[in-house]
Every structure is written in C-alpha cells, then in structure tokens.
Design brief:
There is one protein chain. By secondary structure, this protein is mostly helical. The chain contains 9 helices and no strands.
C-alpha cells in the first residue's frame, strides 16, 4: 500500500524557502526545519532527502517563483531604460520594506556563503546570474535602439554592471543600507549610461 502524505509538500517547501532565505543554510539546522514545518525528520527525509537536498530544492524554487518572473517582466518590457529603473525601484522596495525586509536575496546570500562551493548550488547561482544578465541586456538593446544609451555605452558591459549592481543592492540591504542610499546609487549607475541629449 503506497505511503500517504498527510501534509502538503508545496506548502512545506515554501516554509523551508523562507527559513533558508532568512537565516541562511549554515545557520539553519534540520531541527529548525522540523520546528518551522511541524513535520518529523522521517517525513522530511522521505519527501525531500537530507538537508542539502532540501536546500537545493528550496533554492531552485526561489529561482523559479521569485527571480525568474522578475527577469521575464524586465526582458519583455519594451520601454528600455525606464524598465530597468522600475526593476531596481521594485527591488529596493522589496529588500528594504515589507515582510521580507533585510532578508536580501536567497541567491545573493548563497553567493556570499560557503554553500556556493557545492557544484549543484553553483549551477543554480550561475543560471540565476545568466538570466539576470540576459534580461538586463535585452532591456539595454531596446534602449540602444530607442537612442537612449549614452554614446559609447556597450549593452553587454552595461548588462554586466547592472547585474552586479543588483547583487550589491541585495547584499547591502541585508546589511542595513537604507532605501534612499540604494536609490541614489542606482540613479548614478543609470545616469552613467543614459544619453541626456535624447529627446
């Protein structure tokens, strides 16, 4: 007779995402997961595997449900530079206010932690970075076609710069940087690649 789960794995996984996101994987023990989810260890292990498998599943879920929709909206926005500006504005609001204030980004947090030495974790981080950079590049190519990029501004190099800036916003907000300071930094970066003579 098949084993019947008396809990919702999807709901449980969302709880685990929030736990790892807020505390980090190094500071989160399996007992923390047991306490947060209300499940016993055997149920967790049977469904998700050990702590590392559970973390990887949570990290992939974060990428799929939180990061990728933002990247897709940016890439599909035909406004160019205003789309990038709005991306950062939304990022700063999310990182500095509301339910997840000062949590940073789960992926950025992983970049800064020892877990990034795991090849499977590294693959998720690399995927996240490539998709973020590609979304920025798409928006910048649109801006270039509209005549809004400063002379000599290269969409590829600028996409790399803005992707790194997004990580900086995530990490500095977790460390307590205020929204006003972060907005000024983003404005300075965007001003450096904007053609101010464009109509």
């Amino acid at each position: 007779m098949p084993d019947i789960k008396h809990f919702d794995p999807d709901t449980t996984l969302e709880t685990v995402v929030r736990l790892f996101w807020r505390q980090g994987v190094a500071s989160t023990g399996i007992q923390d997961v047991v306490t947060a989810t209300g499940l016993n260890r055997s149920s967790l292990y049977a469904t998700f595997g050990g702590k590392q498998e559970l973390y990887l599943t949570a990290l992939r879920r974060y990428l799929e449900q939180r990061s990728q929709p933002m990247f897709q909206r940016l890439a599909e926005d035909a406004r160019g530079l205003p789309a990038i500006s709005d991306f950062f504005a939304g990022l700063i609001v999310a990182r500095c206010s509301g339910e997840y204030a000062r949590w940073g980004c789960m992926v950025s947090n992983a970049h800064a932690g020892a877990e990034n030495s795991d090849p499977e974790v590294r693959a998720v981080l690399d995927q996240h970075h490539q998709e973020l950079r590609d979304a920025m590049y798409t928006a910048l190519v649109t801006a270039e076609a509209q005549g809004h990029l400063a002379p000599g501004a290269d969409p590829g190099a600028s996409a790399d710069l803005l992707a790194l800036l997004a990580y900086g916003v995530n990490l500095r907000s977790r460390a307590g940087a205020d929204a006003t300071t972060l907005r000024k930094t983003v404005t300075a970066a965007l001003d450096s690649i904007t053609d101010r003579t464009a109509a």
